[in-house]
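To assess whether the prediction recovers the assembly geometry, we first specified each molecular entity separately, as shown.
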Amino acid sequence: MSSLLQFEKRKYVFALIAICIILTYIVRLFFLQIMSTEYKRYANNNAFLNKTLYPARGSIYDRKGKLLVFNQPAYDVLFVPRQVTHLDTMALCKALSISKAYFVDRMKEVKDRRHNPGFSNFTPQSFMTQLSPEEVGVFHEKLFYFPGFYVQRRFVRKYTYNVAAHLLGNIGEVSPREVKKDPYYISGDFIGKQGIEKQYETILRGEKGSEILLRDAHGRIQGKYEEGAFDVAPVHGKDLSLGLDIELQLLGERLMKNKIGSIVAIEPSTGEILCMVSSPTFNPNSLVGHMRSRNYRKLQQDHQKPLLNRSIMGTYPPGSTFKTAQGLVYLNEGIITKDTQFPCSHGFTYGSLHVGCHAHPAPLSLIPAIGTSCNSYFCWGLFRMIGSNKYRSPSDALTIWKDDMVSMGFGYRLGIDLPGEKRGFIPNAAYYNSIYRGSWNGLTIISIAIGQGEILLTPLQIANLGATIANRGSYITPHVVHAVKDQSLDSLYTTKKTTSISPRYYEDIIDGMRLAVTGGTCRRANLPDIEVCGKTGTAQNRGHDHSVFMGFAPKTNPKISVAVYVENGGYGAVYGVPIGALLMEQYLKGTLSEKSIELAEQISNRTIYYGDEKR
Amino acid sequence: MVTRNVNIMRSIDWITVLLYLLLVACGWLSICGASYDYGQTDFFSFSSRSGKQLMWICCSGLLGFVLLMLDSKFYKTFAYLIYMAMILLLMVTIVIATDVKGSRSWLHLGPVSLQPAEFAKFATALALAKFISRYNFSMKKLKDVLGVSFLIFLPLGLIILQRETGSALVYFAFIVMLYREGMPGIILLSGVCAVLYFVLSLRFSEVFIGETPTVMGQYIVMLLIQFFTSIMYGNYFKQWRVARMQLIISALCIALATWISLVYFPFNIVWVQLALVALFVVYALYQFLLKRYSRYLIITLFPLLSVGFLFSTNYVFNNILEAHQQVRIKVLLGLKQDLSGAGYNVNQSKIAIGSGGFIGKGFLNGTQTKLKYVPEQDTDFIFCTVGEEQGFLGSSFVLLLFLTLILRLIYLSERQHDTFCRVYGYALVSILLFHVFINIGMVLGLTPVIGIPLPFFSYGGSSLWGFCILLFIFLRLDAARSERLR
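The predicted structure of the complete assembly is given in tokenized form:
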């Protein structure tokens, strides 16, 4: 009996074992369910498929509401490796018009985890991307022959007109660096690469949405999580309307065919860009879809650098167009009055220094000096100013001069809403002190008087000078975008900036520019019933001179300011003036007269030969 | 008839019935969660798994009622007959069963399929109870031990022949039950020690202590061996002071050796531990020579065999176990990550449970189980659904329900006056405990993956009925306790 009693105690052993086991399991549960978060993460990765919903990118319109850029469907061919069965490779290649070798290479590439880290046998893998509806059409019809293959629609950009490539820019797949910089993007997303597309990326792209789908153990979608309660709808991109006049742009690009250079037209009252041509250019539609990278590489290798937007990235000596700015500074600083006369004996001569000039009556006062573009007059002006005893030193004089120039928008970026703008160059005293070791005077730097020498402006800055003169001393920072839908424009593009020059001096310069058109260097710009004001430029250069024109019209209440810069085009009157006049006519009249159509045709057909040197 | 009915209604243990109903209800809800498919929500349709399970549950309730209605003497009288019938059924099954995923354990009777192995449990429990309750039965008699062994290993062998290793292992639970009836504790302890040594030495076989060449696994197991030896010594001879002295001396020696090895002179500390064990053996032998008391000789066997087992573990593991078994064990011990192969089920099951959090995702809101990430989620891995949908609270509640049931059954067993009833009760306790231990341990990644169902939870009529019969026979026997006294 004692042994039986002893065994009865063993019930405690049983109870203890049971309690220990259950307690151990509860502790284990505690660690699994409460202390650890990794299992929840695993569970979410398991079950939730976060599908991105792509917003539609905003469209772009011109100033008259014409659609310039919009979205067009492109198709990606995807396949889920696990679902591909009985694949007839030859039929597939035929339907997609690809070679067997391409198919094999592509399959190898997709399955190589080094190139495609996201590879899985259960999820859709991209086989070909951005095919046009025509390219994918046959395949789409025969899709049922190819189990496991899918066609997914995406959107690529389409340009209505084959112009304004630099200004509009383009989109391409994000680079790894862009992904690292902005976590919004994931590999394969599109991002604006140039022009407006880049500058207004965040406005145009909108915001991606997401939906949470439930995925089962085999990767199949079983529906929406919580009936879509946590889904976020995408916010579509906003439309942009530009100040651009597409008709003007078309004409500009036609005129600049086979020439290197740039045209910029600005509406003086608003600062809106009316047209911006950079030649040579390219077809914006060539940088769309799967041909993009190949075409882009070709453009990159072109020695004439068609990708460069010369309107804002090219810096040129402005030549005689700069005399207007010089005149304004001399007047403003009291160096001359409009009646001050300077001699010109085939140019400016001082000691051994001689700056040549063409034949015209002399001496001249300011207005005819602008009209005939007298070099001597402006050399004397600068010489007087730098040497004036109003200032303690030439350095002080140059500083005053430079500040006036900067107030007119030179030497710094204007701040246009396009990426990559260059600032040009306006020398200051420190610069000359350093290159001439402190020993310089008005004569040393005399070439800047006529817009040569160190002076470098972008065509945009030249056009903006025209706009400033047209506005009699003020400008609004030039900008491409006229309005963003449901959003106001950056205040930079609505605020008027005033130059340091007194408005009354502008009238004298305008009179000079008017004289140049009616009886001076710009006579070819004298349109019958429009009061055009203009100034030619013939920028000296190691090669053939550059042909420049800067002007605005009409004289009162100006509507357009134009700058034309044709590299190696010779005298300003050869290319600059007629091109500028045609643009003004087109913009102000809406059409060209018969004579002008003929002229435009002529200019368009003229080719300037540049040789093969790298530019 | 009427009076006896009233008696049963009055004397039946309603607490156990309530626990049974709670578990079955929780089980059914889990099945609903596990078999729920998007778009299909009719839990009562017989075409769905939840509908079928509900039918099994109703049938099991009916079955329970019938079992309660039978005379309590019936079970003892017909114990051997039932046992023999079941053995016969198991044999027949081997011959006529069709092959389902490699196992030949299913009998197809028209629309229903039965797994006789589930029903053989209660038959074996009845037979064992009858055999042990014989007059003059003793675990010390070889004949009796052999008899008991025969009763256990006959169905076990037949089930192995059906290739249902998991179900067969359950019969080892009966050996645990024998402990209550006088089986020497050393057998149970040896089993526990063997598992403990094996797991620890393998788990830490590649970990070293500091800069010393001491293998962590061996070090820990040697500590355990010395600890158990001294405890046994104290228990056997009631010489607790000597045992304590042994423990203190060993602990000091090992601490000193570890310190020297770590700081001054790296050497294998296991040698010191072996020396200490040898010292103990010499001491015990000396006592034997002095007192001529054979127990001193026996006690030297434990440390010697333990050390032998420890040092043969690696050999056994690498040379005797098959490759897939090695993988399973390594995955279980966390020595190997194999998430696509052997570890997939357990990993997915841990993810499902771990993602449940404190209060769970809510009924039918589990994503892992709904989306079929966990294989066998409505049978062997049903506890995942509880863990994911009901969270820590729900799963702890279920675990505590099981614990309460087991403790209640131990209490009921102990209050039996008849050895037959007590043995049967403990058989029931052992089987339940074994199932819960292995099944939930497997789902939590603590025990090996052995495919046995979770009582009252896992989908399937056979398993549910098997446990129902086991439980209700015991309830009937318990209800008759007072009748017999009279």
